[in-house]
Specification:
Bound molecules: S-adenosylmethionine
Strand content: 5-15%
Structural class: alpha/beta
Order of helices and strands: HHHHHEHEHEHEHHHEHEHEHEHEHHHHH
Distance between the termini: 46 Å
Shape: globular
Helix content: 40-55%
Length: about 475
Amino acid sequence: MYNPKSLKAEEFINHEEILDTLKYAEENKDNIVLLKEIIEKAKLRKGLSHREASVLLASENEEIINEIYTLAEQIKKDFYGNRIVMFAPLYLSNYCVNGCLYCPYHLKNKHIARKKLTQEEVKKEVIALQDMGHKRLAIEAGEDPVNNPIEYIIDCIKTIYSIKHKNGAIRRVNVNIAATTVENYKKLKEAEIGTYILFQETYHKESYEKLHPTGPKHDYNYHTEAMDRAMEGGIDDVGLGVLFGLELYRYEFAGLLMHAEHLEAVHGVGPHTISVPRLKRADDIDPDQFDNGISDEMFGKICALIRIAVPYTGMIISTRESQEVREKVIKLGVSQISGASRTSVGGYTEEERPHDSEQFDVSDQRSLDEVVNWLIDLGYIPSFCTACYREGRTGDRFMTLLKNGQIGNCCHPNSLMTLKEFLMDYASEDTKKKGEALILKELENIPNEKVKEIAKDNLEKIENGSRDFRF
Ligand code: SAM
């Protein structure tokens, strides 16, 4: 039976409820009165239920679709302004004991080069990332209790935080590793991670079991209940995601929103972020083998609908997507993007992009400076801010900040100060020129006069060599 408050996977992601939702959405997709009512509700910026959002997803009415896009853009502007937070993935190890059919790191892949970074190699990778200007990482690893135990992950986190190369520093480490125990989540919390990210891959239990035929990841319930264990372990920023292309997107969309509703119902705080990865070509993986790929257009609609259904949740897009697609979805609601990513173990210390241990093909292959330059041209502020969790603004405290509209006096100046650091330490001449002009213009958009004065003062201090200011 469907129960968002239950701690059992099959009750909070209830198959029958999803099927009923899809039926309800199909029956009502031309019900213009209902569609308009849902749009009106979305305009209150308090989100939508999985049923309401699913009806909008099913609608093919052009007027309604345009309203969805306009509203998503507006909500994005109101809640996130024009800031885009930057990060990079860091692959620690591709040893993996699972049999995921869509991932080249699966156990049976005998020709992919298996690598696991030593702490010395982690250090080199981090220095390379710091030299680009990155301040925020998402660490990635395959699941392998012998090669990648939690102690190894914790050691890597400690190494990453300890490295201060020139003016560089990694100030936030998010973690994307396999579902684990409450005890291990506590250890991650103690190691001061930012967000714990775990993609559900698919919410469809039967497909999930087929797609994960062997290894610990086969256990659907254990995987689906991971965020509850993470919360129990004290991690209150968690990141959801599905791998679009594995199952029917309408099913995944309803499941994703039900998962968000469940976290809110049980823990009083929804997901900190939602990622929207799409299946990509990789070593021995051909995405065409899976029948559920979605067009760029549908992908855009899904992003817009996530934006209006969960306005307080950040949305992440990786370099799996091309520059063109990224441009489109940033406008519709994405608030965080990766830049200059390498998805191979040890990839940042190589001159050329290595392919032998890559997890998937990267579509957007530009350098971080190029991505920053491009964002500025599009009118966005590339932000390297990591202040919230360092100030203890996680979970519901972060949400309160967002809900009280204090973002303008907090995130906005923080984005300008961290961009300034990037311009001083890592940017090309052209990016620097454009960035300085942007900062001058955007300073005027800080609502509180006192905050504005402090921000100006800090920018001057950064110019003179000081670093790491935050509100
Ligand atoms: N191994 C960890 C786990 O079990 O959750 C997570 C790390 S894995 C490096 C990160 C994510 O990459 C996976 O959760 C999956 O969604 C995604 N991924 C795997 N194969 C992919 C492919 N061929 N194309 C795009 N994304 C892929």
